Amino acid sequence: MRFGAFLLPASAAKHDELKNEKYPGANPTYYQRTLNEHARVIKQLEDLGFDFVAFSEHHFHLEGLEISNNPILLGAWAAGFTKRIRIGQMATVLPARNPILVAEDLAMLDHFSEGRMFAGFARGYQSRHVTTIGQKNGAVATFATDPDYATNDARNRELFQEAYDVIKGLLNNTTFSYKGKHWQVPPDNVKWDHPKTKLLAPDMVEGDILKKIGIAPNTLQDPSTIEVMVPFTLSPNTMRWSAQEGAWPIVFSPIDEILRSCLDAYHSEAVKRDPNIKWGQNVGHFRDIVVADTDEEAFNIGKDALGYIWTGWHDHFGFNEALRRPGETGPIPNTYESMVDRGYAICGTVDTVARKLEKAITTYGMEMLVPWIGVGPGPVDKLLRSNELLVEKVLPKIGIKLEQRKPTFRKELREPTWRDRPL
Question: What is the DSSP string of 211-222?
């Protein structure tokens, strides 16, 4: 089974600092502390056998509960002190991005990490970020409690699809052109008459006019083997789209009825690509997982970690809708107790967590779990011990061995990668 970790990262300002100081997200002391604590966790996860680590994209977080402007750049940072763990995004927000630059950045990360990159794409739910960064695209956010959800969702999906098509085309082709409603690659009538282009990249031009572009470098991995992940998924439409693309949706809800509808939607479309795919396959699942010596201790660690981040920040964006039971009306309790009672947070002793995990894995045919680890305001030493107990005690108890995916390089690679050469 594959385990990956989702990290925001959140500021490593602690609870009293987050309450008493203005603009903690801009404080360099806290961000340096954040980098140290996250590096400790990432190095540990690699040693424990986690398959990947992934970062989110959100902007302007002076509040400090998310400081994660650029997940690809964070991946380049993590690549420098790791060697095996894969590095990705959960996710790059495509409606607000230039897809050509995203493709270039992904390819560079792939080389920096020696083929450990995977791509994660999302549509964006924070209006402050999406509409500011994506203003030239006319981008809009989409979130569960938006009163104009249908209109904004349609606009958001349209922008997402074009950006995705451009990225996919650039990664899978040496030269590429595209004409869409929002993006034209390259624009019409760009004069380019350089003799070296005509000699070494002749497919890019016709006469003296640029007709195609290509990114350089392109990926180190064979592009047909690069995984795409679509995180925080609740929508059957997104599940079906992921199945059509062969992507991994990472489902956000622990509620049985929601989960089953998502898995049904994915499977009904996935069998068109692979008649042998089983229900539940090729789908990941988010959870908060905390292990300690007692149930009470684990609960308190989780409450101070992701419980603090979720209830203090994410509830505002409708995250608790992922915990709503069928037929339930009114607000969902915005507490860590609710996260535990409804199955999103799995916390307790080795025995408690093993029992709950085994039930979830068996019920939904889970192949991939993605713990959202609340590093930052959470106690890092206790979270490190929780990860150790999870891998060394809980997983063996339920017969789970961790799998790390290996990269497949492009056939053009003829020499050792950069780190395997003398420095």
Answer: --B--SS--SB-
C-alpha Rg value of the chain to the nearest Å: 22
pTM: 0.97
Q: Which of 67, 108, 68, 62 is nearest to 90 (CA)?
A: 68
Stretch (H or E) spanning 408: none
pLDDT in tens, 190-212: 999 999 999 999 999 999 999 99
Query: CA 14, CA 398: separation in Å to the nearest integer?
Result: 35
Which of 112, 104, 121, 45 is closest to 74 using CA atoms?
Answer: 112
Domain boundaries, the chain: 1-52+283-404
Residue whose C-alpha is closest to residue 348's, from 404, 315, 390, 392: 390
pLDDT at 165 over 90: yes
Question: Which residue type, as a one-letter code, is found at position 368?
Answer: M
Q: Dump pLDDT digits (tens) for 91-142.
A: 999 999 999 999 999 999 999 999 999 999 999 999 999 999 999 999 999 8
d(CA 89, CA 92) in angstroms, rounded, equals 6
Cα–Cα distance for residue pair 306/345, rounded to 1 Å: 9
Tell me the C-alpha to C-alpha distance, in Å, between residue 121 and each of 21, 63, 164, 215. Answer: 33, 24, 8, 19
Tokens (6 digits) for 318:
């409708």
Tokens 């439409």, residue?
Answer: 237
